[in-house]
């Protein structure tokens, strides 16, 4: 996080050069067109300047060939740039399977972050260098956006749903974290730092955290305390479906519809359980809307996910 | 000549044409203005009120720029700052840019250009101004009574559940104001269809008319959507009906879809009429027909239609499906094509012309430069990979100011300078007008070019305080805004002083073609003494200038100007 005046931001993730190369290509195209059109305008303005007030230049109605040419050439340039941009965008949308998963909750006006190991931090995100990191994010109130310019990526953080983003930092250092979506009075102070560390230093930092309880353990504890475990037993036969081994797979609903058990489905099933009842079960589960925090929800989610990990 | 006879007896209206009677002096008194059904007077009513809102929005801009000279929040409280940028956006977009060219210049010249004595529905035209006034009044009340801090985009659930102040009142004001646009759109479309003078075929229409027609289409189809959306926000805010707030079971992203479904086409409501102005002015000051008339005419319609199916490019970072994102991105790129065609055709119009750089043409050149940059930087935002980085940063701020201010405001001022002699009968000081054009062009670039750099560095928009390293660029931007402000001031003095001591303009000071230049300046109350018969195409600059005859005195409206 340089304090000096810069004309170009730091490059600190694997996306940075990919985005920058398209950026520079677009700058080159823009300069070419601007200078080209302006040169022609100036030449015409001077060469064909009005020399006497009764000039009546001969009319030119147009030239279909020329007009087609300057419609089709920009069209091909546009398609080319679109393709380049879409390809990088695709990569930004597909987190690798081995990414470290970190959870982010935005609220007016702070970022609350939980690492799977249980360490929590506010307005700071510590991550290891050269390892993909996936953020699962939600908001407690209005829409925010998690923006790290040095990584060239951002994503909206929306209340009532999970959004994800991922990146792989490749430069250690400290970088700006901004809230990019206007979120109210103190929007411009909803900022922080992303601290990219060597892997060893990161491990050491994780170990030094106060909380000894990992997110999975915390989730397991909540699972019992909130009474989930009374119906959702490990073996089948409980009043609710067993949650072992279901995450990531399909499940048939009472309506016959088949849905995938993902973060959004688990979230919805906890907050408004009556919406998508699993086939063969009664809609008897009480809602937890407004009774558990987003952080607890994320812990439960991590725990439920852990029930489907084969290791 | 365009009419058959110059010696006929007094026209149907029954009185001899008095050369001293025009639309400005045929009636006096406040009532004659506030209840006027004359499209020219209504145009001037809009001119006055849009100028008032431009000043209101400008005050907001000035306070924002002064605040941002330092990284800390020294001048304004965070809350006040948020209210200022909201006020700036709401006043400039809903009450200045959208009505500027259509309601001011369009109201004045559209009927004259097609040879009509007024618009099709003069009473609706007046009603549209009152809708605008009521909407503007409500918005102003909301600003004075406590302000609104949602930003002009009113994103939910912030606007429905969390924002302070008079959001509902402001939204209702914008809602009422929407009817003003719808009524103007209905009026213009009907007028163009039904009231063209004999001989004024579709392909003899000036391109300004095509542009206004395309704009009217967007106004009629788009405005109802935003009107309903804003009402839904009011319903959720006042009655807690869950539509957008997830805590009430709503979907906050739904609002963005509905909002941009109107508000992206609204960008074209703002810029397409400016394209129309450009075609008129560039043809006039190069004394040439517009190169490729039909390409330019249809590109306006293409932009209007495509503009409706690209709204999702405002939402690449919301987590919408990647495939939806790709479609929106691709369609957005397609809009670049008709836009590029226009730029190239205007440039080609100068070829072998007779080019004269009077102040309207100077504004037109300024438009070309700034709009070109505005359009090209749009590519950075339609490219998905770069948009993710640039979304909600100063790059976006700079981009749309290049299009809206560099493009549209320049086009509006260009049109105002072009038709000012027609509207007022007076010439302004050419030296002052050129000075203001140059000051505005330079000040604008100094204000907004640094913001592209700031945006790529990652400076988010709507920030009241910011990291120290961005200060130099913000100071440059504020310095530019000062020059820009002085430019607008010179322009204001220039135009107002022309009313006091400007030389008489005569019917056709620029040697321009088109029906509006064949009648008196300022025009008579019914524009034409007799319905003109059109025998010429638009921009027939190779022909001699002519004037329509004035019945009764056997003379034309004045000396042929060239």
Short précis:
The complex is a heterodimer of chains A (311) and B (562). Chain A has 311 residues and is of the alpha+beta class.
Number of helices of chain A: 7
SSE topology string of chain B: HHHHHHHHHHHHHHHEE
The largest sheet of chain B is: 2 strands, antiparallel
Shape descriptor of chain B? globular
The run of helices and strands of chain A is HHEEEEEEEEEEHHHEEHH
How is the quaternary structure best described? heterodimer
Radius of gyration of chain A: 27 Å
CATH topology of chain B: Cytochrome C Oxidase, Chain A
> Which whole number gives the mean pLDDT of chain B?
91
The first-level CATH class name of chain B:
Mainly Alpha
Tally of discrete structural domains of chain A: 2
Number of strands of chain A: 12
Query: Alpha-carbon distance between the termini of chain B?
Result: 15 Å
| CATH class group of the largest domain in chain A | Mainly Beta
Helix content of chain B: 55-70%
Strand percent estimate of chain A: 15-25%
Walk me through this protein's architecture:
The complex is a heterodimer of chains A (311) and B (562). The model of chain A has no long low-confidence stretch (mean pLDDT 91). Chain A has a five-stranded mixed beta sheet, with helices on one face. By secondary structure, chain A is of the alpha+beta class. Helix content of chain A is 35%, strand content 21%. Chain A folds into two domains: 194 residues, Cupredoxins -  blue copper proteins (Immunoglobulin-like, Sandwich); 84 residues, Cytochrome c-like domain (Cytochrome Bc1 Complex, Chain D, domain 2, Orthogonal Bundle), CATH 1.10.760. In chain A, helix 1 runs antiparallel to helix 2 and helix 4 packs across helix 7. Chain A starts with 13 loop residues before the first helix and ends in a 5-residue tail after the last helix. In chain A, a hairpin with a 5-residue loop joins strand 11 and strand 12. Chain B is an all-alpha fold and 562 residues long. Chain B has one domain: Up-down Bundle (Cytochrome C Oxidase, Chain A), CATH 1.20.210.10. A two-stranded antiparallel ribbon of chain B has the order 1-2. In chain B, a hairpin with a 4-residue loop joins strand 1 and strand 2. In chain B, helix 3 runs parallel beside helix 6, helix 8 packs across helix 13 and helix 10 runs antiparallel to helix 11. Chain B is globular and about 75 Å long. The N terminus and C terminus of chain B are likely disordered. The chains are: A alpha+beta (311), B mainly alpha (562). At the A-B interface, helix 1, helix 2, strand 7 and strand 9 of A face helix 3, helix 5, helix 8, helix 9 and helix 10 of B.
């Amino acid at each position: 996080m340089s304090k000096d005046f810069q004309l170009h931001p730091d490059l600190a993730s694997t996306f940075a050069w990919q985005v920058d190369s398209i950026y520079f290509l677009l700058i080159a195209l823009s300069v070419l067109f601007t200078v080209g059109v302006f040169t022609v305008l100036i030449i015409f303005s001077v060469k064909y300047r009005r020399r006497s007030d009764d000039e009546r230049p001969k009319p030119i109605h147009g030239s279909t060939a020329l007009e087609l040419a300057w419609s089709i050439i920009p069209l091909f340039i546009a398609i080319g740039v679109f393709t380049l941009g879409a390809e990088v965008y695709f990569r930004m949308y597909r987190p690798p399977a081995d990414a470290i998963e970190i959870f982010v909750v935005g609220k007016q006006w702070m970022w609350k972050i939980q690492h799977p190991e249980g360490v929590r931090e506010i307005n700071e995100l510590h991550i290891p260098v050269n390892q993909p990191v996936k953020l699962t994010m939600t908001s407690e109130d209005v829409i925010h956006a998690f923006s790290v310019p040095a990584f060239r990526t951002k994503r909206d953080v929306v209340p009532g749903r999970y959004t994800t983003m991922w990146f792989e930092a490749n430069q250690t250092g400290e970088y700006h974290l901004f809230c990019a979506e206007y979120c109210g009075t103190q929007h411009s102070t909803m900022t922080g730092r992303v601290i990219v560390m060597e892997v060893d230093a990161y491990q050491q930092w994780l170990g030094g955290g106060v909380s000894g309880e990992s997110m999975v353990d915390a989730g397991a504890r909540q699972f019992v305390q909130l009474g989930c475990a009374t119906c959702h037993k490990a073996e089948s036969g409980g009043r609710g479906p067993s949650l072992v081994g279901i995450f990531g797979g399909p499940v048939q609903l009472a309506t016959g519809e088949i849905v995938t058990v993902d973060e959004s489905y688990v979230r919805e099933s906890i907050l408004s359980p009556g919406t998508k009842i699993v086939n063969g079960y009664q809609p008897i589960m009480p809602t937890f809307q407004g009774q558990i925090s987003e952080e607890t929800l994320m812990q439960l989610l991590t725990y439920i996910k852990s029930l489907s990990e084969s290791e | 000549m365009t009419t058959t006879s110059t010696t006929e007896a007094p026209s149907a209206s029954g009185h001899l044409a008095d050369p001293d009677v025009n639309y400005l002096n045929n009636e006096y008194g406040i009532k004659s203005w506030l209840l006027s059904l004359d499209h020219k007077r209504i145009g001037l009513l809009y001119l006055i009120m849009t100028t008032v809102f431009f000043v209101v929005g400008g005050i907001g801009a000035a306070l924002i720029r002064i605040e941002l000279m330092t990284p800390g929040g020294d001048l304004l409280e965070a809350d006040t700052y948020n209210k200022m940028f909201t006020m700036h956006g709401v006043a400039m977009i809903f009450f200045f840019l959208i009505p500027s060219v259509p309601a001011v210049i369009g109201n004045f010249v559209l009927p004259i250009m097609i040879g009509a004595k007024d618009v099709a529905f003069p009473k609706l035209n007046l009603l549209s101004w009152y809708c605008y006034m009521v909407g503007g009044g409500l918005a102003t009340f909301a600003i004075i009574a406590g302000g609104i801090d949602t930003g002009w985009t009113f994103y939910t659930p912030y606007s429905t559940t969390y924002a302070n102040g008079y959001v509902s009142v402001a939204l209702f004001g914008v809602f009422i104001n929407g009817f003003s646009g719808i009524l103007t759109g209905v009026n213009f479309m009907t007028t163009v269809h039904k009231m063209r003078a004999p001989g004024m075929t579709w392909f003899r229409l000036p391109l300004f008319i095509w542009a206004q027609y395309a704009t009217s289409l967007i106004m009629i189809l788009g405005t109802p959507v935003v009107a309903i959306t804003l009402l839904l926000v009011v319903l959720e805010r006042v009655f807690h009906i869950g539509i957008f707030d997830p805590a009430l079971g709503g979907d906050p992203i739904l609002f963005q879809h509905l909002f941009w479904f109107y508000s992206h086409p609204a960008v074209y409501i703002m810029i397409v009429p400016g394209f129309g102005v450009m075609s008129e002015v560039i043809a006039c000051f190069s004394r040439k027909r517009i190169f490729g008339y039909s390409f330019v005419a249809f590109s306006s319609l293409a932009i209007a239609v495509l503009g409706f199916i690209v709204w999702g490019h405002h939402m690449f970072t919301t987590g919408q499906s990647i495939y939806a994102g790709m479609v929106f991105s691709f369609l957005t790129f397609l809009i670049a094509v008709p836009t590029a065609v226009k730029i190239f055709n205007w440039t080609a119009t100068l070829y072998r012309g007779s080019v004269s750089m009077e102040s309207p043409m100077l504004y037109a050149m300024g438009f070309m430069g700034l709009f070109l940059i505005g359009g090209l930087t749009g590519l950075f935002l339609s490219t998905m990979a770069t948009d993710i980085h640039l979304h909600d940063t100063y790059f976006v701020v700079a981009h749309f100011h290049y299009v809206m201010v560099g493009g549209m405001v320049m086009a509006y001022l260009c049109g105002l300078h072009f038709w000012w002699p027609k509207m007022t009968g007076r010439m302004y000081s050419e030296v002052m007008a050129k000075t203001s054009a140059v000051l505005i062009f330079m000040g604008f670039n100094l204000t907004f070019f640094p913001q592209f750099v700031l945006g790529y560095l990652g400076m988010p928009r709507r920030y009241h305080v910011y990291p120290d390293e961005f200060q130099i660029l913000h100071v440059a931007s504020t310095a530019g805004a000062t020059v820009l402000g002085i430019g607008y001031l010179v322009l204001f003095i220039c135009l107002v002083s022309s009313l006091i001591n400007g030389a008489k303009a005569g019917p056709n000071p620029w040697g321009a073609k088109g029906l509006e230049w064949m009648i008196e300046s300022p025009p008579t109350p019914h524009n034409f003494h007799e319905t003109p018969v059109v025998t010429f195409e638009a921009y027939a600059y190779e022909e001699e200038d002519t004037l329509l005859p004035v019945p009764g005195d056997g003379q034309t409206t004045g000396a042929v100007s060239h």
